Amino acid sequence: MRATFSAPIRLGALLGAGAFALTACGGSGSAEPSGSPAPEQNGESSSAAPEAAGELTVWVDADRADVLADAAEDFEADTGIAVNLVQQDFGEIRDQFVSQVPTGEGPDIAVGAHDWLGVLVTNGVVAPIELGDAANDFEQVTVDAWSYDGQTYGVPYSIENIALLRNTELAPEAPETFDEMIEMGEASGATYPFLVGLDPQAADPYHLYPFQMSFGAPVFGTNEDASYNPEDLQIGNEGGQEFAQWLAEQGEAGVLNTNIDGDLALENFNSGDSPFYLTGPWNVPAAQESGIDVAVDPIPAPGDSPAQPFVGVQGFFLSAQSENVVAATNFLINYIGSPEVQTALYEVGGRAPALTESFDAALAEDEIVAGFGAVGTDAVPMPSIPEMGAVWDYWGATQTAIINGEGDPVELWDRMAEDIAGALD
Amino acid sequence: MAETLTHHRRPFRRWFRETGWRHLVGAAVVLFSVFPLIYVLSASLNPAGTLITANRLFATVSLDSYIDLFNRPQQPYAAWFLNTLVIGLSASAGSVLLGALAAYAFSRMRFTGRRVGLITLVLVQMFPQLLAMVAIFLLMLGIGEIFPAIGLNSQAGLVMVYLGGALGVNTYLMYGFFNTVPQSIDEAARIDGAGHARIFFTIILPLVSPILAVVALLSLVGTLSEFVIASVLLRDPQKQTLAVGLYQFISQETSQNWSVFAAGAVLAAIIPVALFLLLQRYIVSGLVAGSVK
Amino acid sequence: MTEPTTTSGPRPPAASRKDRRRHQANRIVDGTTGWKLMLLKIIVLSILCATAVYAALVLFINDRWLIGSLVVVGAAALTWIYLQRGALPAKYLAPGLVFLLIFQIFVVLYSGYVAFTNYGTGHNSTKDHAVQAIMLQTQDRVPDSPTYPLTVTESDGEIYFALINDNGEVLIGAEEQPLEPAEGAVVDNGTITAIEGHHVLSFADLLNRQQEITNLAVPLEEDLNAGYLRTQDGQRAYLYTSRYVYDENADTLTNSATGTVYRDTGEGAFIAEDGEKLMPGWRVNVGFDNFLRAVTEDSIRGPLIYVTLWTFAFALLSVATTFILGLFLAIVFNDRRMVSRKYYRLVMILPYAFPGFLSALVWAGMMNQEFGFINNVLFGGAAIPWLTDPWLAKLSILIVNLWLGFPYMFLVCTGALQSIPDELTEAAQMDGAKPFQAFRMIKLPLLLTAIAPLLISSFAFNFNNFNLIYMLTGGGPRDVSAGVNVGSTDILISMVYKVAFVGARADYGLASAFSILIFIIVGTISVMAFRKTKALEELN
């Protein structure tokens, strides 16, 4: 009996011990914040740095942090301004930036993707950066991507786009057209002639965009300066309808299969079950580790126009509430925009650099990067208007329905174009 | 010992009627519980693999992902683990204590608004937390301006936010359990001259230890998986929790590392499992049940 | 509040047990003293008060009178509670309530406040910030204008921009002082090193005065239409024209090219006569607009009934299935004759020990129509559309939620069962009741009384279980011909998410209004359910 008693009592004592004083005997105490610092410590102003003229705060994701640490050290040595790198989860940065900049807690600089610009600009949290003559040092598509409403908003550092991965053992030659690719794929005897990862609920407008482009159906028309014009919705044009029919045919033929998601596509390609795989550079290391000899080819077009994929450009941008604009601009243009940093960022991320000098060097030394880079320079920037959220939603669901034969493809596509137009108003 | 002996001597039919069928149920439940997790384990052992493998589970078995996990200076897994342990255990202990205090008041004392108060506690927790992130950020920003040590980017601050949820449905759970402890025990102690705090800490708490253990486990698991608030409050990687840190491995669509993530999740599961093992005896053989034997 | 003082729960009959307890109490009472605790109490309270006074002072200094007063009142209330003799319930409730009030009630109040504003994309901050951002984002660089290598100087505290023009002349200008030839300038190797009466700023000086420098706009010529020189880095200046002119007194923005005037019409943005809005705007109070929109929004009205029905079905069935399985398992493994039960118990909490979204992803993979484990292995290659058929997707969601949720119910039921003495059922069985009957008549009502609030709260949790829906099906499958982006597994909260966040703009105001409406629904149902359980409680 004793034994059964003792254990629970110990537990009770354990739980009680910490707070015994608080509520003991007659009760007392409260749970007000304990361990608060001595009163003289007042706010953040006490961080008196004697010599440094100030501090830059930069939000950066884990992969980029290492490289920037070196650049930050150089910057501090040169200017006396410390760079405080705050590690953030990449996917969280946009929303955190939007909500924190107005409170004054936001950073001076953050890393991000160009398609966030619409939201950032509409919220007034990002400041334009005049690249000046330096703009010519970057690949044109990267500066275009980081432009919004006539202003440039960031210093780009990497280009990211999809291309066709080819298992050279199963397919020694690059295909010219989509049909040729399927023929080659079938001739190779592999289980799947061609792979692309699709979501069972939302297909994948991003991965299927090059095919859509080849039928001459961009999502938006473009202005003179190559920026998108959201007023001019092109997705429902004749080319779009042709694309819809093509999707239905490929779905019926089993070439496009919404049950093959990203993971399955990757795994099947890595196990040598398909000669062709439409994907980005992020899946190359895994394929190579699995012993596949990979080549990167342009995307073969099913339609008459070139199969241009979307390009995503990552870069660093400046807060509209930054109080250190001079320092921040210097850091952005002279350090992040430098060939050394751009190359270092490329080496850690494996994406083609945005700075032409580094871009050319990377392309010259690595065939894989060269393959993706070649496709990327012809690619079109992903639209960055804030309305894209709704567009992706309708777009993907309709692609799924068409691929799975759930209705007349053209009707479904027209319906989608109407819905998107409605969502954009 | 004696029990196992009789166990063997029981004829099979009787054994089956009494405990045997329970093993059948157990086996089914084990399959149901564990199967999806096999995928996670398999993914953690296959460094180049994906989360869902179509054909071959355990095609490759390699501990590389586990090793990798501890060799990433930008993603300090060991620190996350420790942080989670500290934050989770403090929040859990705090929740149990605050909840038990409140449950005792509700169970043993009669005051105006008692029943309404009890229901309100549960109702408050039902508010959809769509905006919690923004609100908590602003709140902690304000607190941090006065007391930096418990504001943004402080683990103490995070624990405090978690303690905000200490009174809630768990209080109700404890309240129900407190009610089953006869009032006569309190009365007896009071006659003997014990104060209410002494009665509470030294007599009542030990008697309700099963439910304290359950609530401790529930709050710990709740804290472990909490992601939204922790990711807003803790910025410094060295201070982050497992839920926040691990998510970084897969949050970026283009550089997902499922294998390392799975390895991290497998190791992270040690915390609740260990606590359960530690508390199992309280949960299972409570004093009330035990003392009647 | 009239209630029986004897609360629910059985009274153990054993008198010997009571005696034992009394002995125990005696032992503990002996030999302890109260003064140490009293001292501790005073210390803790003084620390609390000191902290509160400090916080209040800081708040008052910063003119935050309301919050400062709340801190003072709160600390005073706590001190009063613990220093007096009575108010025993308050002494026990206060610690938890303090945290609850600060961290939970604040979230509710904040949501309530946001529901009456237009907070969201494009209305993210204050009017000052909006004006600043608009002016910043609409500085258009004059096309084909050159880069001006810049030297920044200072004279009498004022900042000057100096540069060398094409003819090699040194020009200098400042705020509202167009560029003019500078006197006594020294040029060395193409850079200006000194100007009479001026101090040339070093890079470190630039950094120390960066805000003045980046805010400075120096007119290029007397004709202001020629544009202004501005710099971002202190080393290069560019020529800009402003798309808009802000008139502070009239509170208007005027487009300098077209002359269109944009006014603050109280809607949280500058708006032209023809309705054109300049973005970003700012946060303003919009009264009941959000609530009005919440009930009239087209994209919601259509599927509302369907989604509401499914939300209720989902929440109720989730609670029912997890509870029944959890309870069943708790009973099965609550048998002391079963030696190995602790291993089963351990395995059963595993689903609970892994991150929910990871499990949801694994389940999604296992339910893949063509390659998933369930179809391939369990159903021998059948192509069952687990996640893509409107009805099967609902079933799948319930199955996965059962997997995720039963360990919780199992734990809770196991814990609660400990409070019910076995001899109650044993006695009933001796009276001739079958085991199951005995359980149903005796244990189950007791158990339900203890667990009912948890079931209610679990219902509320599942009612708002956004994560599961979002990760398993994303609300799909969707009927694309329906024209709304609401799918057949969307519950109210995931539909709200789509309406408020996925469209053209994230709309926190609308989302908050929805939160409040949903809270009213869930809250009402829960209160009604609590009423029922009260009846249940009194039965015993």
From TrEMBL, chain B:
Record field: transmembrane: 21-41, 80-106, 118-144, 156-178, 199-221, 258-279
Keywords: Cell membrane, Membrane, Sugar transport, Transmembrane, Transmembrane helix, Transport
Predominant place of localization: membrane
One Pfam family recorded for the sequence: BPD_transp_1
Stored InterPro entries: BP-dep_ABC_trans_perm, MetI-like, MetI-like_sf
Alphabetical list of SUPFAM superfamilies matching this protein: MetI-like
Subcellular location: Cell membrane
Annotated ABC transmembrane type-1 domain residues: 81-279
Membrane topology term: Multi-pass membrane protein
Protein family per UniProt: Belongs to the binding-protein-dependent transport system permease family. MalFG subfamily.
Name of the protein in question: Sugar ABC transporter permease
Annotated organism of origin: Nesterenkonia massiliensis
